[in-house]
Each structure stands twice: as structure tokens, then as C-alpha cells.
Write a structure and sequence with these properties.
heterodimer; A: about 575 residues; mainly alpha; Cytochrome C Oxidase, Chain A; B: alpha+beta; Immunoglobulin-like; 2 domains
């Protein structure tokens, strides 16, 4: 941690802030930029664990029963533990901390022009709880019985009765870690919304806020509005596990389906909670690198509100065949398919933004465009699953798996790389190497498609998720299907190897890269008006905002950008 | 499209496959339209020296029509998908056609028990025939099933039938299917059910009338050989995770030897 954050120097110009010692600057910081780094680096370390788990279980699928190099034998119990925790980690300990907490913390004060979050100590507490939650999760892998293996959805009674799951403390620590993580993000969320609403620079009206900030704030509101039921559910599940209540046990008068409703009432908005920050980041990047105003700024924000609102009434599409009343499914089919309308409109607007632009394919732009391309596949395949009758066949198959990896991989991994490569100069004051960046991009994006496109076809062939060895199912044990599994696994290994390029580029550029100017991309938003990296306290004097964030290529101006803080007469 | 990858062995498999194909046509159109626009714009509007980007706000009506008209078309096609889906769904999950035969399916960690109703067509009578991991069906009969679970959630899934239904402890869930093709198919548990989830399979055999009666009498007089065991024994071999290091040529062993 300290190595990474050491690159953030306290600028001598910030006279109104006293020098802090190492402990208070990096271990117990209140500066939003340092807390952002803590979140991002914790998230990246967790991403390595999650990727390692994926490697282990994909190797088992391709070469069942053999020793996995750098891991060992993957038996059925271990396989369940690996898939469960891969999912949990990637969503709760990678997507959430990096995209929302990490970039939210870094971007919100810089983009709206204020010196810090309005509740800096709450912010610090939020990270500390998050760190504890990550440690609790990691501890759960080492208790007797091993980590929890009941899938990331943790359906009871499997998750609530130790005799069924065979992971007594693994399951309890898992639910405890998830609950702690929610508490952390609730604290952070209050902070984000309050800051964006109250601490904007003079002159910045609601319609002058960059889309990235808008979407992070909408995402946080969705999170806070949806997480309550699941926190209640977590407490009930924990009590079922530890003190023998039976909220979810039919033998004691409970109902297993209750958990599913609580979980998915949160779980579906959660998809949009992680999606929206990436959509916002992508909107900012495509406008900068195509030198265009965002097509229909207000429309894009309205579509985000519509998507967020609809996301609260679609949760039972995860439960079409779970034993709910079949008549109820029809309602959820309608709401689910309707969600395609705002999202389609938003994607149309993004693509229309490119029209008539002057597009420069720098690394962040490649990531942003590849996000749109990959997310289109993830989006349209969702229609199959939203149609309940097709879902009867595809539910819990590899088709579902491929579908949500075509949404979550672009959101989490591609979005994270887009944001990191774009704001790297601002974070560390140095430029990243473009050539290595492009090698890393193609070395990630091509294998990503090679992993997940074939899995759609495995799903159509009837292959189910969460099965550690397909040799037990004669219809699935054919050599053709096994070849597809091997191809996907080899692609995964290739993709993981290319991540070393990124790690090398990241750390070498951080210390030895070319020094970054204030505004290397000629962008408009406020964070580019201050030195890279920004000093403690960010702005020497608070900026005044004169216009919206996307005034690129305005006719009659010599420069093709018009920063938000530049007064009109200066032009 | 699905039938290209797997048998269609039940009466409603074709409906689901057709619905899948309809959705493929609709979303394929949208996908290639938007993806094509993305690629075309990216290539056509690459940065050229001396050419400035256009200033388009996307707020005038002449501009918004480019996103609004397609989006009305999306609504129209959504209505088609919803309508087609409800037609199929009501048929396969919401209504129970009159039954010819009845079977009780019970999931438990980690096996399937089947209670065939026997000649009288009623469960819980003396002529019921119980089997483990072996479901026998008569072709052309409309079956009702009563799905139960003894412990955790399981899922009664027969991909060849396009059939899938969760088994919930404490409930009996009813449904129907009608096998239309003779053969033996996989039944997979499709809901995570713990340590043995990956081996919780069973064999579903669709018989002709004579073969069905013969099998049933074999079961009753004890000369029956389990289809499930036969199928697992001949085609695949049982759990193979003890066999590492035997196959020297495999990729994983190769990697292990390099490092």
C-alpha cells in the first residue's frame, strides 16, 4: 500500500494544510485521494485472488482430476469453494471497491471542485471496515471445513445448515464478511451523495456535473435503497447458522424462498450499481478522445434514472423456475424486457457521440470502445434470459454464465482498466507507456472473447454451472465439448499472462514514466485544471464553473476544448 | 437453433427452440446494427490533420431522431418478444394438461428417487414402483410430476426435454412434460446443493410401450439392471480425480513439468 501511495506527493503550494507524518498520511488518511488509492489497491489485490481461483477451477474443468500447477488437486468441495468465492470476490471485493469506492472517492471531489469529501473521517472508517471485511473473507478460506461453497447466491437451507454445506464456520464468516462490506459501503455512500449534492464548486449546476459523477451518485443511491433487505436477510441467515433459528428452514416454519427474494431484491439493482460507474467513466473517455460533446447529455442521465428505477422491479427474473407462482413470472418478464429500452437508448447515444468526431485510439479509448462492444453482447443475450420460457432451458446453464461474464467482465475489468489508464497521469503524475498499454489491451480483449463466446454454445448444449467434472454426465462428456472447455481454459491462461504486462507497465510508469502535464488529454473537467498529482487539498483556490463538461470542438474557438473553469472572456 | 446442440425429446422443446430462434433474429438485427455503427464510426471518424470534430449537442429534434426512432422500434420488438414468451410460458408452466401418467421425483443430497405411479396411475398405492437415479417414461404419455426435496434446494433438469424446476424442501411442486423421442438422457441437478452437486445425475429413459412394460416387470421381479449405472460404467468411468499423473501427455502435466 505504502509503495503505491508514496507516489502521491504533498505539494508545497498547499500552505493551508500542515505536513502530515507517514502514519496519518498513508495508514490513517482522511484525504480522499489516499483513501481512493487504498480502495483501488485492496481491490486489485482481491482481483488477483479472484483471478487465481478462476484459473484453478478452469484448469480442473479442462483437465479433470489432474494436479493443477501452482494449486494442487481440485476436489468437488474445493471446486465449490473456488467458484463461490470467485464470484463473491469479483463482485463485492473488486467491482465495488475499485469502481464505486475507489474512483468515486478519487473523482467526486476533483470533478466537482472541492477540497475533500464532506465527511472525511467517515470515509476513513468506511475503508477500515471494508479492509476488515476482506480479511474476514480471506480468513474464511482457512477455517476447518474450508471456505463456503454454496454459490455466491448462498441459497438456504444449504447455506444455513452446517450438516448440509459441510462448511460450518466457512459459511458464517462468509456471510459476516458480506454484511461488513455492506456496512462499509453504506457509510461511503452517504458521503458520496452528500458531497456531490452540497460541495460543488460555485457555478456548477446539476446539468454541469460530469456523467461519471452523476452515475456514481445514482449507483450509490440504488445501492443504499436496495441493500437494506439483504442486510436483514444476512442477519437472519447468520442467526440460522449460529443460534439455530429457522427463518429459512421449512421444518421450523421458515421458507427458503424468502432469502431468494431478499437476496435478489438487492442482487439485481447491484448489477446496475456496478454498471453505472463504468458507463459514466466510458462516457467521459469517449467524449475526450473523440473531441465531441456527449450526444444528448440529459437524455443519458434520464435513461440512467429509468434503468435504476426499473432495476427495483425485475428481481424475480432470477427465480422464474424457483417455485414462485408461474403467473407472477409474466409481470417480471415485462419489466425485465422493458429495461432494454433505456439501456438501448443510452448505447445509441454513446455510439452517436462518435459520429462526426476526431477519434484518437489511445489506450483508454480502446478500453472504452471495447466496453461498448462487449457490453452489447452481454446486453442482447440478457433478452433470452428475461424471456421466462427460454429461461426454463437456459437457467443456471453456461449460457447464463457467459451472459453475465459479458456484462461483468466489461464492467469490472475493462471499466477498471479504462479508468486506470485514463486517470493514471492524474493519480501518479506520470504517463503510462502507450505501446505496452496497447499490447495489454489486445492481449486481454481477444482472449476474453475466446473464453466466453464458446461458453454460450456449451450452455446451449445443456451444460450446467457449478459442476466440477462433466464426466459424470454422459451427454456432456463428449470429446467435442471437452475441446471447447480446453480452448476456454487455455484462453484464460493466455489472458492472465498478459496481465503481467499491465503490472510491469503500471509500476514502472509510476516511478520512471514520463512526467505528466496538468492536462495530458486536453480534457474539460475540473480535475485536469490542477497539478498532477493533485496536492493535499486539491485546488489552490476553489474554481468557478462556467459551462458543462463536454464543450469540445465548439465552433468559433481555436482550441478544440473549453475547460469548465475558464471564464468566457478569456477565449 | 438449440436442437442443433441437443436432442428435442419433449412436446414443448420445439416451442422453446422456436422462441429462442425468434429472439435470435430480433436481437441479432439490433446487435449487428449497433455493432456495425460502432465499428463504422470508429474507422470513418479517425483523427485527420486539420479536420475538426463536429459540434453536435444531440438535443435538437433533427438529431435526437437518430436515437429516438430506433428506440421506438426497440419497444415494438420488445412487445413481440413479451407476447411470444407469454404464449409459450403459459403453455409449459402455467397450465397442466390432462395427465396420462404420474411420477413423484424426490431430490436429496445427492441422488434422485423416482416413484412411478404404476398401472393404476395413482401414487401412494401398492403398485407404485420406486427407483433410484433411474426414471422410466413411456413415449407419448403426458406426465405430471410431483417434485419434492428432502434437504436443500435441488433442480429437476432434463436438458433434452427443456425442462427445469427447482425442488424446494417443504413443498410439492407440480408440473408436466410429454416425452416424444425414445432414448436415454441426462438428468442433472441444476441448483447448487453442496459437496456432491457435481455428481448428482440420473438417467431418464424414454421407452416404447413394450419396452416400458418389460422394464417395469423387471424392476418388480428383481432382474433389472440400472440404466444409470450401465450408462455411467460404459461411457465415462467413475470419478477420475484419482488418475492424475497417469496421462503424461496432457497440458496440465506438461505445465507442471516445466515449472
Amino acid at each position: 500500500m505504502s509503495q503505491a501511495t508514496a507516489a502521491i506527493q504533498t505539494d508545497t503550494h498547499a500552505e493551508h494544510h500542515e505536513e502530515l507524518n507517514f502514519l496519518h498520511k498513508y495508514i490513517l488518511p482522511v484525504d480522499h485521494k489516499v483513501i481512493a488509492m487504498q480502495y483501488i489497491f485492496t481491490g486489485l489485490i482481491m482481483a488477483i485472488i479472484g483471478g487465481y481461483f478462476a484459473y484453478a477451477f478452469r484448469m480442473q474443468l479442462a483437465f479433470p482430476g489432474e494436479l493443477v500447477p501452482f494449486y494442487g488437486l481440485v476436489g468437488p468441495g474445493e471446486y465449490n469453494m473456488l467458484v463461490t468465492n470467485h464470484g463473491t470476490i469479483m463482485i463485492f471485493w473488486v467491482a465495488m471497491p475499485v469502481l464505486i469506492a475507489g474512483f468515486g472517492n478519487f473523482l467526486i471531489p476533483l470533478m466537482i471542485g472541492c477540497d475533500d469529501m464532506v465527511f472525511p473521517r467517515l470515509n476513513r472508517l468506511s475503508y477500515q471496515i471494508f479492509l476488515v471485511s476482506a480479511l474476514v473473507l480471506i480468513a474464511s478460506f482457512f477455517v476447518t471445513g474450508g471456505g463456503f461453497g454454496g454459490a455466491w447466491t448462498a441459497y438456504p437451507p444449504l447455506s444455513s445448515v452446517a450438516e448440509y454445506s459441510l462448511t460450518d464456520w466457512g459459511a458464517s464468516l462468509w456471510i459476516l464478511a458480506v454484511a461488513l462490506e455492506f456496512v462499509s459501503f453504506l457509510l461511503g455512500g452517504i458521503n458520496f451523495v452528500t458531497t456531490a449534492m452540497n460541495a460543488r464548486a460555485p457555478g456548477m449546476k446539476m446539468w454541469d456535473i460530469p456523467i461519471a459523477v452523476w452515475f456514481i451518485v445514482i449507483a450509490v443511491i440504488l445501492f443504499m435503497a436496495s441493500v437494506g433487505p439483504l442486510i436483514a436477510g444476512s442477519v437472519m441467515l447468520f442467526m440460522d447458522q449460529r443460534i439455530g433459528t429457522s427463518f429459512f428452514l421449512p421444518s421450523g416454519g421458515g421458507d427458503p424462498l424468502l432469502w431468494q427474494h431478499l437476496f435478489w431484491f438487492f442482487g439485481h439493482p447491484e448489477v446496475y450499481v456496478v454498471l453505472l460507474p463504468t458507463l459514466g467513466i466510458v462516457a467521459d473517455i469517449i467524449t475526450v478522445f473523440s473531441r465531441k460533446k456527449l450526444f444528448g447529455y440529459k437524455t443519458v442521465i434520464y435513461t440512467a434514472f429509468a434503468t435504476g428505477g426499473l432495476s427495483f422491479v425485475v428481481w424475480a427474473h432470477h427465480q422464474f423456475i424457483a417455485g414462485i407462482d408461474p403467473r407472477m413470472a409474466n409481470v417480471f418478464v415485462v419489466t425485465t424486457v422493458l429495461i432494454s429500452i433505456p439501456l438501448a437508448e443510452m448505447m445509441f447515444s454513446y455510439i452517436a457521440t462518435l459520429y462526426g468526431g476526431s477519434i484518437e485510439l489511445k489506450t483508454p479509448m480502446l478500453w472504452a470502445l471495447s466496453f461498448i462492444a462487449a457490453f452489447l453482447i452481454g446486453g442482447v443475450t440478457g433478452i433470452y434470459l428475461g424471456a421466462s420460457a427460454v429461461d426454463v432451458y437456459l437457467h443456471d446453464s453456461y449460457f447464463v454464465l457467459a451472459h453475465f461474464h459479458y456484462t461483468f467482465f466489461p464492467i469490472t475489468i475493462i471499466g477498471m482498466f479504462a479508468a486506470l489508464t485514463f486517470w493514471f497521469p492524474k493519480m501518479f503524475g506520470r504517463m503510462m507507456n502507450e505501446t505496452l498499454g496497447k499490447i495489454h489491451f489486445w492481449g486481454t480483449f481477444i482472449p476474453f472473447n475466446c473464453i466466453f463466446l464458446p461458453l454460450f454454445f456449451l450452455g446451449l448444449a445443456g451444460q450446467h454451472r457449478r459442476i466440477y467434472n462433466y464426466n459424470h454426465f454422459p451427454d456432456l462428456a463428449t470429446q467435442e465439448l471437452q475441446n471447447i472447455r480446453i480452448f476456454a481454459t487455455v484462453s484464460l491462461v493466455v489472458m492472465l499472462c498478459f496481465q503481467l504486462v499491465f503490472v510491469y507497465n503500471f509500476f514502472v510508469s509510476m516511478f520512471k514514466g514520463e512526467k505528466a502535464p496538468e492536462n495530458p488529454w486536453n480534457a474539460n473537467t475540473l480535475e485536469w485544471s490542477i497539478p498532477s498529482p493533485p496536492p493535499h487539498g486539491n485546488f489552490k483556490t476553489l474554481p468557478t464553473v462556467y459551462r458543462g463538461p463536454y464543450e469540445y470542438s465548439v465552433p468559433g474557438r481555436e482550441m478544440d476544448y473549453w475547460p469548465q473553469h475558464v471564464p468566457p472572456e478569456e477565449s | 437453433m438449440i436442437e442443433y446442440f441437443i436432442y428435442s425429446a419433449s412436446s414443448f422443446a420445439g416451442d422453446i427452440d422456436d422462441l429462442f430462434f425468434l429472439i435470435t433474429l430480433i436481437i441479432g438485427f439490433w446487435f449487428f446494427l449497433t455493432f456495425g455503427a460502432l465499428v463504422y464510426f470508429t474507422i470513418k471518424f479517425r483523427k485527420k490533420d486539420g479536420v475538426k470534430a463536429q459540434y453536435i449537442t444531440g438535443e435538437k429534434h433533427s438529431e435526437t431522431k437518430w436515437t429516438h426512432y430506433p428506440h421506438f422500434a426497440v419497444i415494438a420488438m420488445d412487445v413481440v418478444i413479451i407476447a411470444a414468451n407469454i404464449l409459450v410460458w403459459v403453455n409449459i408452466k402455467q397450465t397442466l394438461p390432462p395427465r396420462d401418467n404420474l411420477v413423484r421425483v424426490i431430490g436429496q443430497q445427492w441422488s434422485w428417487s423416482f416413484i412411478h405411479a404404476g398401472p393404476d396411475g395413482e401414487l401412494d398405492t401398492a403398485d407404485d414402483i420406486a427407483t433410484v437415479n433411474d426414471l422410466h417414461l413411456k413415449i407419448g404419455d403426458t406426465y405430471h410430476f410431483e417434485l419434492q426435496s428432502r434437504d436443500v434446494l435441488h433442480n429437476f433438469a432434463v436438458p433434452a426435454f427443456r425442462l427445469r424446476q427447482d425442488a424446494v424442501p417443504g413443498r410439492t411442486i407440480s408440473g408436466w412434460f410429454k416425452p416424444t423421442k425414445i432414448g436415454t438422457y441426462d438428468l442433472q441437478c441444476a441448483e447448487m446443493c453442496g459437496y456432491g452437486h457435481g455428481i448428482m445425475g440420473a438417467a431418464v429413459t424414454v421407452h416404447s410401450e413394450e419396452s416400458y412394460n418389460e422394464t417395469m416387470s423387471q424392476i418388480q421381479n428383481g432382474t433389472y439392471e440400472s440404466h444409470y449405472q450401465k450408462r455411467m460404467g460404459t461411457k465415462t468411468g467413475m470419478p477420475s480425480y484419482t488418475s492424475h499423473f497417469e496421462d503424461e501427455g496432457s497440458f496440465a502435466v506438461l505445465l507442471a513439468s516445466i515449472f
